[in-house]
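Run Myeloid differentiation primary response protein MyD88 through structure prediction, thanks.
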Amino acid sequence: MDGTDSKVNLGSIPLVALNVTVRKKLGFYLNPKHTVAADWTAVAETMGFSYLEIKNYETSRNPTKTVLDDWAARNSEASVGKLVSILEEVERKDIVEDLQPLIDEDVRKYLETQKKKAEPPVQVPEVDSCVPRTPERSGITVDDVPGSITEMFDAFICYCQSDFEFVLEMIKELEQTEYNLKLCVFDRNVLPGSCVWTITSELIERRCKRMVVVISDEYLDSDACDFQTKFALSLCPGARSKRLIPVVYKSMTKPFPSILRFLTVCDYTRRCTQAWFWVRLAKALALP
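Sure, done. The structure for Myeloid differentiation primary response protein MyD88 is below.
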């Protein structure tokens, strides 16, 4: 590829850098069954998925998206560069050429976000009395002390607005009890006026030990939740550090997200285990 690839090693760029638009267009190209051109099954096979796994993916409404999500979740080497190589290997250079501008733009935005996270804010000469800053951003949550103390949390709560009532119950059960945990709830803890994506990445990666993902039908339609989940998974491929904890609190009509199906779920909908729900969740969050 030209453009971004001439300056950046795409093999070092995780799949989370590709936004919803690119993923949808990949589906448009690969989901239809072709008699000549390679489709999603050829891509999945090249990625290392078994025959049975590929047959199971045939029931998915968007098999390309499911394959990409599962590949990123279980393969630490999954990257934008590797995906491009696979497309070229199955002789779908037409897709690479058509999507190149969009991929380049997504990679550029991803690198800009990473650069902003890594660099401390620029000190203006006139303000020479400021306390030296650490690479972590400060002044983004309510209890931050700008320039010195950054607020830390036991867990980042990934949720959509329609599930906020359950988040409030979570605060009551986990913070205002003997568990005494500290949760990062975006609407409560984050100060207004910041770049949503940059601040979210900072909180998930550096400020929170774990992330609770509140799964619901509405969650599946949320771009913000999609970004947060995939970003957290990119930090711990295969969930080796037990970083993500999926929670289901109400019945769903849509399929459970395939990208999280390899994780143990904390299920509030099962009456027979409701009595243990908060205990299990609290102990999981309290682990070192």
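Residues 32 and 39 are 7 Å apart (CA to CA).
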